[in-house]
Amino acid sequence: xxxxPSNVIPSSVVPSKRVPSKRIPSLDGLRAISISLVVAGHWVxxxxxxxxxxxxxxxxxxxxFIISGYLITTLLLKEYKKTATIRLRExxxxxxxxxxxxxMVFMLPVFVIFRHELRWYHAVAAVLxxxxxxxxxxxxxxxxxxxxxxxxFYFLWPGVLKKWYQHRVxxxxxxxAFAPLYRIAxxxxxxxxxxxxxxxxxxxxxxxxCLAAILAPRLPxxxxxxxxxMILPVALxxxxxGALRFHITALLLLVLWPVMHxxxxxxxxxxxxxxxxxxxxxPVVWLGKDQLQPLFVAAVVxxxxxxxxxxxxxxxxxxxxxxxxxxxxxxVANAGEEG
Length: 339
Known about the structure:
By secondary structure, the protein is mainly alpha-helical. The protein contains 13 helices and no strands.
């Protein structure tokens, strides 16, 4: 009798193709890894002044963006195949319902607690999800940059996919090619730094996730050995970036980061195709689910050692709404939640 490897979920646990699963396997587990990277990375960075730790925190954000691009595109493609269109109104209503309440639960206490440090234009940028273009935003709004990126992605990509569906791959490849050029232009114009948080600077990461969703049915199944090889650049590139103290070089921008992003996408596809037990065991899934993310927001804010921030933690930690993830962002927990 053939035995199932211990590190892979048995077929009796994973629904067969005939019974569509409401959740994509392993995504919560991958999200849990990214959450851990962000929390641990920021903690070590702030307490031990480690640029390498900060680079791994940034890696957690990049993993979140790729998961987001993959998941949202998977949902949009599924809808397009069923209806031959993408109902934008319904999509935006779902996004607003899922994100606006949580965002308000975060923003309103912050606006009150830090009212003496807050300028009206920072508040407006936060409410309009433009913090990533507000280069002078205060520290307590800093982690909103990634939520802003996500919202801008939600606003743009469904409409682009609907209108130019036949050219979706070409458009995404163009985005992947454009983003490094944009960052080079920002550097030449001395806009580097927080300009790296603007949407065009990181759109290539989201695009890689989108391409993974589009091309997955055509790609061969990624073997375990290949996925292990892909983990190497994911682990080594942040060390190199941290050693450079976040000084962006041509090698990092044009070679290492793209290789790392492709590797993350490859590992994601492998984890979805071959659901490992460790990524789908209940405690790990629990950690990666969105209702916990306010607690991690609170944890990172607490790193600032502010009494006011601690009060804010209690407010945010008490809600089950999904909110922004410190340096990453909350996302649809999984395909089944779209309904």
